[in-house]
Amino acid sequence: MLKAAPGKPLPQSAPGSQTADTPESTVRRLYRDYAWEGVGIEVSDGSMTTLQDQTLPELKKYFDDGLARRLRADRECTERIHTVCNLDHIIIFASQDPAAYGLTISEANKKNQVLVTFKYPSNNELLRLRYDMVKTEDGWRIYDIYDLNMKYYLRAGLPE
Amino acid sequence: MQIALKRARLFPALSILIAALCAPQAQAAEPAAQVANTPEYTVRSVYHDYAWQAIGGSEAFGSETVNLRRQSLPELEKYFEPGLAELIRKASECEENTKRACTPEFDYIFGSHGHSATDLEVLRASKKSAVQVKFRDAVTYRDYRLAYEMVKTSAGWRIGDIRYLNRKTSLRIHC
After folding, report:
1. Would the pTM count as exceeding 0.80?
2. ipTM surpasses cut 0.95
């Protein structure tokens, strides 16, 4: 969006109205706002901030307080010690070299779960992520992400 | 067409580390005010905001997420110069009224029908008012190249036309 005055980095929420507050709408908003990370746009000029580089308030638009704080702490750790602390991949694309096509976002078996699937272009592997959602006073937020392919819980990999 | 395999998923993340450590330095190297007031910034903005069209499209994002083709005039004018924004809006209204395509059916900023793009690059062209975009279709591995012709307006740099080099046509020709 270019409402921003010259010199201001791109806002992180892309245009498009969001009316319903459902577990799926939060996940849809997350992928809508950060899909650009999945098509490979370069970020070296500082005009875009990746999800995992975001501030705590921005992270809390999608994640519950606990997970948002863990994500922020991990990135601060990386910046402090100049090496990977815990997260070594882009969490919403389950890859360190994100790319995706054929994205689907749908209800999972339980009401508070959302299933995201997409294919990874270089090998056409179908990746499946289950989002465990929690209702907060600000709306539905992501409590955890479970990588069904790698059997990996995001929250468990991030210390409190 | 064969393409090189990307690094394995969940492999030790050099790219993550590099991004985390280098982004602030890059920002400092080129002041944000200069970055924002460039033709590339506007083009990068439209891909930043509408990249979702290339990974899932409306099927994944539902009707509440409006694609660029159907956007309001004020939203279009954030990226396109007023004349082209008006043409795009009129084409959208034509499609709503006639229930048929009034402009090319391919995605305006990807120049393709498929919802798949990877390795997207926004490049400064030799001519100051031109920006090149290239990307690879993630399914067909076909390379796409688009040439953006930019116009300096009172609101900043805006898109005057998009030439689809693979198709030898342009957005303005069809609107």
Report:
1. yes
2. no
